[in-house]
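Narrative of activities, Objective 1.

The group set out to show that a structural description can be obtained from nothing but a protein's sequence at a throughput compatible with the screening campaign. Below is one input-output pair from the validation batch, recorded exactly as produced.
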Amino acid sequence: MRTEETKRRSTRRPPDRKARIVSAAADLFRTRGYHNVSLADVASEVGITAPALYRHFRGKPDLLLHVVDATVAAVVASVAAAPDLDTYLRTSASETPDRRGSAVLWQREARHLPEDRRKEQRRALTGVAEGIGELIHSARPELDHADRQLLAWSVLAVFGSVSWHRTSLPRRRFEELLYRLAYAAAHCPLGTNREQGPAPSPGGYAGLAMSRREEILVEAIRLFDERGFQSVSTDDIGEAAGATGPSIYKHFPTKTDLLVAAVVRGGEQRRAGTAQALSWPGTPRETLERLLRSYVEFAVSQSHLIGLLIGELDQLPEKERKAARQTQREYLGLWVRLLDEVRPGLDPAEARITVVAVLTVIDNAARTGASGDRPDLADRLMEIGTAVLLAEGPTDTA
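Output recorded for this entry:
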C-alpha cells in the first residue's frame, strides 16, 4: 500500500518542467504570435494545468521575457565560446537548425516586452555583434569597426534567416549551406566599387506628397513596425500624425484598413522596382544584380514598411493575408528562377534558403542602428548580397 510520502514523490513535478514550458511557449509565440497565445495554450502544450504554470511564471509577460532571454542567451554563448571566426561559423551553422525560431522571437515578439527589458535585449544583441566583429577583425584586420559590424550583423542575419521560412535540407547539407552563406558574408570584400550596370531609379520609392491620408499611413506603418499591430490603437496613430479620430476614420474606417493599405503600399512599391529591374536587357547575372539593387533601394528607403511586411502579415484578414502570402511566394520564386539561370543545377531548396538569407541580410541592415544610417549602405549591401547569392567561400572544408 502506498504511503502519503510515496504519493507526494510520485506527483512531484519534473526538474525540467520550467525549461519545457519555455520551449513550448517559444514555439507557440513564434507560430501564432504573442497576442494569439494564452497561458492555457502553453499549459496544454506541456500537459499541465494553467495554475501549475503559475508556479513558475507570474504571467504571460514574464513567460515571454524568459523565452526571449533564453533565445538571446544561446546566441551569446555561441559567440563567447568561439576561439576564432571559422569555429563560430561552423558551430552556429550546426546549432541553427535546432533553434529556427530564435530570430522571430527577438525581432517580432520582443517588441511586447517593457521598454527597459527591450533595451537590455538590444544591448545583449549588440554585444553579440561586437563579439562576432572581433572574430572578423582577427581574420580581417584591415577592416574598420563600422565594416566589421556590418558584416557581423550580416552573419547573424544569415543564421537568423531560417526563422522566416520552412524550407529544409538533409541535416549535413543544411549545415554546410548555412556555413557557406555565413562565410561568404563574413569574408565579403567591401568597397570594391564594382560597376553594377544600369540600376533602377529610386523614383518608385520616393516619398509621396504628404497629404493628411499619407501622414496617417506613414505614422501607422512606423507604429505597427515598432510596437506590433495589436499593441497600437487608432488614438496612438492619431496622436503621432497630429490627427483627430474623425480625421482618421474619414480615410481609414478601421485600424485593419490601415494595415491593409500599408501592405498594399509595400507590394506596389516593390513591384515597381522589380518591373524596372527586369526591363533592362542583359545577362542573367546582370538581371539578378539589378533585382538585388531594386530590393536594396526599397529596404533602405522603407525600413518601417519592411518591418511591417516581415512581422504583421498574420494580422491581415484572411483574404488579404492569403493574397499577401501568395505575392511573397511569387516574388521569392522570381529570385529562385533568376538564381538558377546564374547558377545552373543549384538545388531549388538551396536556392530558396540562399535567397531568403540575402533578403534577410538586407532587411536587418536597413533596420539596425548604425548600419541603417550608413550613407554607403546600399553599395555595401550590393556587395554582401552578391557574395551570399554566389556563396563565394569554401565548399568542402570540413
